[in-house]
Amino acid sequence: GIQVEQSPPDLILQEGANSTLRCNFSDSVNNLQWFHQNPWGQLINLFYIPSGTKQNGRLSATTVATERYSLLYISSSQTTDSGVYFCAVEGGGTSYGKLTFGQGTILTVHP
Amino acid sequence: GAVVSQHPSWVICKSGTSVKIECRSLDFQATTMFWYRQFPKQSLMLMATSNEGSKATYEQGVEKDKFLINHASLTLSTLTVTSAHPEDSSFYICSAGQGKYSPLHFGNGTRLTVT
Prior knowledge:
- The structure holds two protein chains of two kinds.
- By secondary structure, chain A is mainly β.
- Chain A has strands at residues 4-7, 10-14, 19-25, 29-37, 43-48, 52-56, 59-64, 69-74, 83-91, 100-101, 105-110.
- In chain A, 0% of the residues lie in helices and 59% in strands.
- By secondary structure, chain B is an all-beta fold.
- Chain B has strands at residues 4-7, 10-13, 19-25, 32-38, 44-51, 57-58, 67-73, 76-81, 90-97, 104-106, 110-114.
- Chains A and B meet through strand 4, strand 5 and strand 10 of A and strand 4, strand 5, strand 9 and strand 10 of B.
């Protein structure tokens, strides 16, 4: 099956700093989503981005499908950005909806 | 937007008992729903695909007799953990979407503790 690797595994920032999270995947994808998991376990859907670039406030994401990677940018980070960020993909040869998750990036933002 | 509701949020049960978790799509119909499991400090792993009106399909290594899935309507799937044991303690989360090339939406998850 498709492999998903996220980097870095851990990231510690001071409030106000910018950061880039990376997601590499091993095959073509029908779907790629970025999620933020908060301390209560809720998965917040940040972006649905199988290709191209999107922006939502301080967050933006870019997926270069031909090169099999996606980037999540967080600008002017806030303490509420802390948590685990997951990249999840649905492989091109996979049935609809079966997502493979990366191992996540644990982000800690200090005031 | 599409909303997936999951109930209960947390449950504590004794070893040997069964627990049922519900997953509902509130504002759309879902012929297919998905169940994931997440152990502490780990990623999410797909357990099974719930198919409305037919049998669920399970991922390799997931015991179908322990994790019973029923998808009796277009808006409700249930996961029953049968004869629960402490090693079944985990975070269970469901998802659903509105069709190919659309995002998957997740419920808020159920934290199961088996004592």
